[in-house]
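Pasting as-is:
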Amino acid sequence: MVRNLRRRTQQVNILNAFWQSRTLKRFAEYSEPSLMLVKGTFQERGALRDAAVRVTEELKSKNITTLWAVNVQLSDRATRTPNALDILKSLAAQALTLGDTAHSQKSTALSCTQLRNATTAKEWIGILGATLENVCREVYIVVELDILISSVPATSSTDEVIALFCNLLKELKGRAKRSIAKVLIVTSRSWTPLSKTTNVFVETMLSGPPPRAKPQANLRRKQGGTSTYKAALRTLRR
C-alpha cells in the first residue's frame, strides 16, 4: 500500500535494465542456497523498497514461499519502531507458519525453549535456519538491510548482518537436503567486498527519472491548435 502511494510522487523509476539483468536471472535459476545483494544510493532507498515489494509480489503470485521484511516508515506515535530482533522474530514467525515441517514432541519442546531463551540476532537466525531446514521447497527471504542495523552508519554493522545470513545459508547447505533458501537483501549502505563464491550475487540498482506524463487533451489543444484538436477527435471517433 505504501509502495502504491509512493508511485504517485516517486522521484526515481526502476529501469527495465535492472529487472532484465543477468545477475538477477542467475540468482533466480541457481539451484542451491544463495545470497543476492542489491545496492543503491541513499536517494534510491525508496526505489529499493519498491523493488523488494515487487519481487515479493511476483514470487507470491507464482506460489513460491517468501518471507519478507521491508521498512514502511509509517509515522504512528502509538506504534513502537521495531528493532533488529523484532525483524528477525517476524521472519522466524513467518517461517513457522509454513506448515509442512514434521516435528516430534521432543523437537517441538526444544523449539519452544529456544523461542523463550533467544536474546541475540545470532540465536534468532539459528531458529530461522532450524525452521527452514525441513521445508521441502524453495524459500525466498527478501529483506531491507537498513532495518536490521542501527542508525549509526557503520560498515561493521552492515558486514555483521550480511555475515549472519551467509552463515545461515552455509548451515542450510550442509544440513538441508530438500529445501533451497535464497536471500535477497536490498540496501543503500556500503559493505566490505565479499569473497568471490558461486552462491553470492551482487547487483547495482539502476534507476532514473520517472516517466513523463502525457499532456492532457486541453493542453494538446492549446499547443497544437484547432486542426490538431480536430484530428485527435477524428482519431477517437474511429
